[in-house]
Amino acid sequence: MFRSIPLKYVLPLLGLTVSAFIFNTSEFMPIGLLMDISQSFAMTESQTGIMITVYAWVVALLSLPLMLLVCQMEMRRLLLGTMGLFVLGQLASGLALNFPMLMAARISVACAHSIFWSIAAPTATRLVTRTHRPLALSMIVTGSAVAMIFGLPLGRIIGLYAGWRMTFLTITATALAVLLYLAFVFPKLASDASFSRDDLPKLLRNPVVVSVYILSVLFATAYFTAYSYIEPFLKIVAAFSDQGITSTLMLLGVSGLVGSFVFSRFYNHFRYGIIRAGLLGLVIPFLLWKAAAGGAGTMVAACLVVGCASTLFNVTFQAELIRHVPMGAAPVAMSIFSGIFNVGIGGGTWIGGQVTTHGLLPYIGYAGAAIGLVAAVYCFTAYFHFLGRAGESHQKKS
């Protein structure tokens, strides 16, 4: 897999992959620690849970402004500085004396998150030739997917046996080790043409780029409409046991690795087919969500397809975005992508909450499918049309 990539670039790619694992683990880790944190500060879980919402909205709101602020920095310095901010934020989280201090620490981590996910994919693709870009992107996504499988349970286990503070401090130590590793192996990348806020209107006048953003927010909204409430759906509608739910969610995470592999193997040769698969792989299982709940095998199969499609869409449209912007604009373009995707996460969670509140949990798949269908229709008509206007032949690229 790495034979044709020089070792000096494989090593930093591995560092970026581990960094993606750490960042993704850190984002959702507090979900499994809310009870412990609440008891420490004599608060309710609903009160401490606000830090998860605030984290997501900080990422959504600050990704673009922060990237515009730092976009002219040399990439190696920016990456190491971002990792340094992340380490400090995690350390402050573990040592927080009260909840406001913990909130402030989590906000600093969210700022680091905003910058990291803006530069991770563009940086990975700059380390390799165009031929190996799908592999580089799939490695970043793999790090993120593995976090969903092993990172979150591991954080929960540490919290149960050593307390929530030790979970944050373990992340601190791990991130510090990765920071030192990257300081040794990450090359200094020559600066691309600088991007300034004056270039932003031109970027947003690109119909292909805008279409990627539209598709991203629609897909994220569709996915999280159902995914945010998958645990109660599996328990109440599909009648899964607690152990069955845990196993299914882990399998869903594993299926993301399959999506990452499919992308790295086939994107260069079957690009349009991969795009279609990412969207239809979400819509069709969600349409069958309620029916699939009638049997354990069909429900698990539907979850596996959705997990694969989610990762496939995410990495494919990051590749599409990088493909259609100048290299110097890629980090800023990715910052908008990250922010918009988080808006979709919030929107989907809200819609799913409304469906559940009104007693329609068994039908939540239809809500996600309806939004996903809008995304699919837009992609197969407008997005493919804009690709054609941009000079890309459907026949040549598929």
Summed up, what is this model?
This protein is mainly α. The protein has helices at residues 7-28, 34-40, 45-48, 50-70, 75-95, 99-126, 133-162, 164-185, 200-204, 207-227, 230-237, 242-266, 271-287, 289-292, 296-323, 330-357, 364-389, 394-397.
Q: How would you describe the overall organization of this protein?
A:
The structure is a single chain. The protein has two domains: 1-188, Growth Hormone, Chain: A (Up-down Bundle), CATH 1.20.1250.20; 192-398, Growth Hormone, Chain: A. The chain is built from 18 helices and no strands. It has helices at residues 7-28, 34-40, 45-48, 50-70, 75-95, 99-126, 133-162, 164-185, 200-204, 207-227, 230-237, 242-266, 271-287, 289-292, 296-323, 330-357, 364-389, 394-397. It is globular, with a radius of gyration of 20 Å. 50% of the residues are buried.
